[in-house]
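[agent] plan:
  1. take the single chain provided in the ticket
  2. run structure prediction with default settings
  3. attach structure tokens to the ticket
  4. add a short note for the reviewer (M.T.)
[agent] executing step 1
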Amino acid sequence: MLNTDKKLKLYYSIGEVAQMLGVSETLLRFWEKKFPQLNPKRAGRDIRQYRQEDVETAKMIYHLVKERGMTLDGAQRRLRDNGEAARRNYEVVDRLKSIREGLISMRDALDAFTYKDVEALKENIESLKEEA
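[agent] step 2 finished; step 3 output follows
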């Protein structure tokens, strides 16, 4: 049976990481040169194998450069001088994005309810009360 849960994978290819971030493989290779913190393992034939820590580092670089609009030099300084604080800030932002997605999903589910659905639900509850 194939493992489809990405959290359980030990290594990711550069293509998988690029797809997760929505960037090119070339950009990831460039970031590897600029950011010593991003250092995937190399397998035979120099194939990159990104560990979960490498993926998280790439996500943090993406957040600093693409989402916050920092320059590469600024992001390098932030990671070098205050890496732990940058990581905590990224984790908070990532968690808030996840919560926002959940709330939007709930809102969309509630918006899908029609007046007829609500009335049918009320009738169902009333009939259950009468049976009890």
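[agent] step 4 note for reviewer: Helices lie at 14-21, 25-34, 52-67, 72-112, 115-131.
[agent] ticket updated
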